[in-house]
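Entry 12.
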Amino acid sequence: MASVHLRGITKSFGSTQVLAGIELDIADGEFITLVGASGCGKSTLIRIIAGLEPQTSGNMAIGGRPIDHLRPHERRVAMVFQSYALYPHMSVGANIALPLTMQRLSLWERLPLVKQLSPRRRRIMADIMREVAGIASQLQIESLLERRPAQLSGGQRQRVALGRAMVRHPDVFLMDEPLSNLDAKLRVHMRSELAELHGRLQSTFIYVTHDQVEAMTMSDRVAMMDAGRILQLGTPTALYTRPANLKVAQFIGSPAINVLPGAVDSAGRVSVAGATLPLTVDRAAGGTVSVGLRPEALVPHAPGSGGDSVALGTRLRRTENLGAEFILHCDVIGLDGVTVTSRIPAGVAPLEPGPLELVFSPADCHLFDAAGERIVVPGARASIAPKPMPAPLRTDAAP
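Predicted 3D structure (tokens):
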């Protein structure tokens, strides 16, 4: 079992608190991503799990086994770094084999002069290189084993770093922004490869990134972090369709969610941009709310459309043609400095800059109070929770 349990993990550097009581349960074989802006504490947390940084307080367990007192190589975790951390003077094969040579050969047997003198060393190295060849075959880098890292592309170096982690057969893979140094096209390809690798290995993956697209496309669950805390933990769909607060809503989704200022009248009804929505909230009259609308929820008004749609007067500034879809960038009339984006499918007649009426359904609104916390509104699709997932593993104390 390679479940991971974190209890009350805090970390401070002097007077600066980086992690503030992290509680997290990760199931055996789960792919979980820690996502958030730079400085939110996600890389510090993964380094603490790896044993590269000590926590200030709290405790951790992997598979029910406490690991706080264990050194990094005793924790049965393998880490893949953003910089790959390959040794430039060693071949690809030697880089992948390094964890096994350090584990299986004594200091004396690792000396260069012993290579030809020790039959035991030759037998061990033959076994190690067979394992390396098997890993290289899985990653399709068999032809690169004699090359040096400087002779490899970014994607090839990433595979070598993965191979060095895989050869240890760890309980948990820790990945700290491993794709950030790759170009956009290669990142897309490597996302697919990592997801397929997780499917084959069925190991526990803890992945760190600031790229919400990586988090949404690969993960079983996502932990959105900010200022050393987990703001929301759930499936990618849950974070997108039912964000717990405004920070989560604004971070998850591309293009970002539209946020419009709203007000509450004496009957609890919400008004936005001069229109009153058929939604009521339990808030004092005169209070302010933020109305969130995903770009796909805002569409140009079509003649004959009606129903419960609410109109929003805008002025189209520019259009992005993404091939399969258009992204419209508009200024909201009557709200100085407020802009919105609309996502519409390709095939719609091109729109010229100028006045444009956008419409949305009140059921697609996400409402947030003055503190940025979600307001649950009966009847709104955006307030209906998705199908619940199985409860995460819980443990009150590591055995």
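Annotation: The chain has a mean pLDDT of 88. The CA atoms of residues 271 and 364 lie 15 Å apart.
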